[in-house]
Amino acid sequence: MDKLHNELKKEFQLERLILFSDAVFAIAITLLVIELKVPEIERSELTDGKLLQALGHMIPKFFGFIISFMFIGIYWTVHHRLFGYVVNYTPKLLRLNLFFLFAVALMPFSTAFYSEYVMKHVLTPVIFYTGNIILLGIFNLLMWLHIGNPKNNLSEGLTQADVRYSSFRAILVPALFTIFAFVYLKSPLLASYLPISIPVIMRLVKKNHERKNKSLPTEKN
Amino acid sequence: MDKLHNELKKEFQLERLILFSDAVFAIAITLLVIELKVPEIERSELTDGKLLQALGHMIPKFFGFIISFMFIGIYWTVHHRLFGYVVNYTPKLLRLNLFFLFAVALMPFSTAFYSEYVMKHVLTPVIFYTGNIILLGIFNLLMWLHIGNPKNNLSEGLTQADVRYSSFRAILVPALFTIFAFVYLKSPLLASYLPISIPVIMRLVKKNHERKNKSLPTEKN
Amino acid sequence: MDKLHNELKKEFQLERLILFSDAVFAIAITLLVIELKVPEIERSELTDGKLLQALGHMIPKFFGFIISFMFIGIYWTVHHRLFGYVVNYTPKLLRLNLFFLFAVALMPFSTAFYSEYVMKHVLTPVIFYTGNIILLGIFNLLMWLHIGNPKNNLSEGLTQADVRYSSFRAILVPALFTIFAFVYLKSPLLASYLPISIPVIMRLVKKNHERKNKSLPTEKN
Amino acid sequence: MDKLHNELKKEFQLERLILFSDAVFAIAITLLVIELKVPEIERSELTDGKLLQALGHMIPKFFGFIISFMFIGIYWTVHHRLFGYVVNYTPKLLRLNLFFLFAVALMPFSTAFYSEYVMKHVLTPVIFYTGNIILLGIFNLLMWLHIGNPKNNLSEGLTQADVRYSSFRAILVPALFTIFAFVYLKSPLLASYLPISIPVIMRLVKKNHERKNKSLPTEKN
Fold it and tell me: Torsions phi, psi of C155, nearest 5?
């Protein structure tokens, strides 16, 4: 009975870590909208034409909102999949998770900075945004390696092949973004559309991984 | 034992999806208040008359706050009912849910845009707001169809009649809003009061649905 | 087994309602801080004296922050106690809870409005704030009456004496605030300190209630 | 059966207290980013040099963001550890927890105030920030003493040695910050780097505590 109680307590402590992370994700993803400011037009000049023009100027902001919503959504999904394997925690996992959440919480700022200047021929915001994506990737990678390390005894049902695949995915997104940053040097317009390709590439990678593992029937997200 | 453990893990993963969604709903519904700015009046001119006048000018904002609170509340209730049937999840459900939450997270902006200009004879904000409601409706519909599809094996206790009824409701709100947008062309004042009728219409539809199904005693919200 | 599953599902649906409410409380209570703006002082004029003076001008804001934090905290505690009795839910309970949360979400605005003008001899913000407290009280009262009604079969372990006591408490706070609003007409300074007395009065009422019921050993918050 | 039900209800009430706290932590930690404003540069003057210069001026803000993220993260970890021992609650624990959360919710303001003026030779913001850290420490200490008091019967598996160690840690952070405030009088630049030493000092204290207790194998964070 006492052992069961301890077991439940430990599981609740783990759940708490996860739900705290979810709350940070949820707030960061919803705070993105704060950067969308209602266009202000004087009453004397107010026409639908002016409003549409104002919305037109906001297109990079909407774009940034959508891209970052997508990214935080993807990383939430990854976090969801990662902790689907976790059955225990260490101080180090708490710490890595906090660093990861730091990169998540920074996203609304990076997004605002990026989408304010994306079409204006400057490189700094693109590098800053890419840096944020790289931070997300690094801490995500470190978390996979930490829970995937059999010595730490933190996970259940996670094979070394899964760890390798997930680590590859964790590195892939920052790598693609770094390439996009170089494309941006040549063609900002093209580069600003490239992030949309990421979910497609991720899906292809996943399909390929699943085909290779189709002998093993597993349920994943 | 191991099977029970897996079952519990799967259920927790599903709970996590739901509680993450709840957090997004809760933040979006509470962020609405950020658009209500305290009226600023110079100390030398400060009287209760001036303050009441300033509050009077804020009536469309309060109205927008109330309408959007009501909508996010309604969609939370629908989400609550929908996931009351769900017993499993797929990557597609995660994705549809994220798209749905995207439309929820956009509501504070749409509301602010709508209530800034609602009484000023422009159509763009009304169309934008209606577009947001349509997005909510579409992703809600797709979620009902996805979990209601018996092949996906995602739900328990959800009859095809329930799916049809819920799909109808999912379409009804955007349809009504599209009608209201046309009414707005003729009479903005009338159109701005129409959203209040939605809970009443929804209730009538529900009552009618329940009367038709009264032979089957079910508990629903 | 199936019955247990349904029971657990129903309990989770109820938990979801509660945790969604908690998130709204948590956001509203934390958003209060957004109204505290860092005082801006030109570099050339920057001294500790100027900063202290600026902080001095913010005293009503800090005061509003503390009072509202206290109120949202108190109402969270009441909500916590109320749902400690609830074992089932109805569409009406979902609705009443949403109305209650509406009043909670409005608090950051009411607080900002109140604390902006509290020391400036105008009555409107005081009435507005009192109105918000009255809304909280009314929906709180309606929730106690709804779950306390034996016909609804929603609660467990809730005696009619508890319902009467909790209803009295729900009315007490708005009643005290209405009195404070009248005191404000005579002495704004005195009235602005009165809210601090509320926890003390509530404690006295509770102690008195507990003394009367001391024959029945119960654990409450 | 009924006793089990009551036990589960009580546990859920405790969980609710914890998850509400988590939400406040999550919001406070994510709201920190709101203070990071995108630098605004006129289009005609926009160069990467100007942007980098603007980011350079934001270094104290980034620094404040990182330090406060670290602190809220540390206090969340402490809260997580503390409630890992708690098996029951009292009205007093609810109250102490609310006071503690008050100090957490104030952090975004204190951080903004501190990082706005940290490099400008004024003492007020440093004292304000230190005051906030002291508040966190005091309520943290009171919570440890309250749950650690065997008479209250609130905890399980918490030895008096743990309580002493945790109380010491609760006092240590504010004590270090008070020292840093005095260092600030002499050298603001040095003082602004000192907070980074806190996790290192905490780790040393922990390692030392664990060495002394290594005979007792315990799992902690």
Answer: -125, 165
Helix, strand, coil distribution of chain A in percent, nearest 5: 80, 0, 20
Which pLDDT tens digit goes with each residue over A40-86? Answer: 888 888 888 889 999 998 888 898 899 889 889 989 999 999 998 99
Return the residue of A nearest to B16 by Cα.
A19
Which of D30, D40, D203, D207 to mutate to test binding with chain A, by most A CBs within 10 Å of its CB? D30
Render pLDDT for A167-221 as a digit per residue (tens, 0 to 9): 999 999 889 988 888 888 888 778 777 878 888 888 888 888 888 776 554 444 4
- Band (pLDDT 50/70/90 cuts) for residue D2 is low
d(CA A12, CA A82): 17
List C-alpha distances in Å: C88 to B34, B73, B123, C10, C96: 33, 19, 45, 8, 14
Residue type, A74: I
Backbone angles phi, psi at A149, to 5 degrees: -70, 115
Are D60 and D112 within 8 A, CB to CB? no
Residues 6+ apart with CB under 8 A from C104: C24, C25, C28, C72, C75, C136
The encoded tokens of residue C41 equal: 């002082």
* pLDDT value of position C36: 87
Q: What is the pTM of this model?
A: 0.88
How far is the alpha carbon of C123 from chain B, nearest alpha carbon, in Å?
A: 6
Identify the closest residue of chain B to A34 by CA–CA distance: B109
CB contacts of B132 in chain A (<8 Å) are: none
Torsion of CA A198, A202, A208, A214, to 10 degrees: -160
Contact call for D16 and C38, based on CB within 8 A: no
Write down the ipTM of this complex: 0.84
* A209: nearest Cα among B91, B165, B20: B91
Q: Which of B94, B109, B116 sits opposite A77 (nearest CB)?
A: B94
Report the 10 Å Cβ neighbour count for A131. 17
pLDDT confidence tier of residue B26, bands split at 50, 70 and 90: very high
| Cβ atoms of residues B203 and B169 within 8 Å | no
| CA B158 from centroid of its chain's CA atoms | 21
Residues of B with CB under 8 A from a CB of A: 9, 12-13, 16-17, 19-20, 23-24, 26-28, 31, 34, 89-91, 94, 98, 101-102, 105-106, 108-109, 112-113, 116-117, 120-125, 128
As given in the structure block, the two tokens for residue D101 are: 């959360």
**C chain contacts of residue B198, beta-carbon cutoff 8 Å:** none
Of A57, A44, A37, nearest in space to B120 by CA: A44
Dist CA B143 CA B96 (whole Å): 6
